[in-house]
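Subgroup meeting minutes
Present: P.N., E.W., G.H.
Scribe: E.W.

1. P.N. recapped why we're keeping a running log of single-chain structure predictions: easier to compare across weeks, and new members can see raw inputs and outputs side by side.
2. G.H. added today's entry (181 aa).
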Amino acid sequence: MNTTASATRYTGTAIALHWLLALMIVGSFAVGTYMVDLPFSVTRLKLYNWHKWAGVLILALSAARLLWRLTHRPPADLPMPAWQRRAAHGAHLALYALFFAVPLMGWAYSSAAGFPIVLFGVLPLPDFVPVDRALAEALKPWHGWLAKALAAVVLLHVAGALKHRFIDRDGLLRRMWPVRG
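Output recorded in log:
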């Protein structure tokens, strides 16, 4: 395992992947929430395509982030109660699982519904499952439920980071902050 991370901060690559993935997930969730209530239109079709493209990119970034994390040691844990450490590790495991589950479920739903993903309008991706209307109806709510679960865990993650910043004042947030300060 690589130990290029300093004793107190994550590597620049880990920080970049963290914030890029965070921005993409928030943006994709916002677009997904907005687009589902739109009437059928060119705008709705564009937003669905952008949402699918974002999902594919989130999946790829998640794979890169997991690979980076598995090959690069994070900074040492800060002193904190054992229950907080377990909660943080549990939240991180849930985040990583949902980073994969949400876009894969969306891809499966899109495939089952017969709406292929053509990345950036030029690269057709293979169908994840065969076209099956009943399967599509079964998968559709799961994508939404998993996305809402991801949003909830992200909010817990942010709340924990803010707690460490404003209540504990232990420097935990600086470990992943993009600018040294």
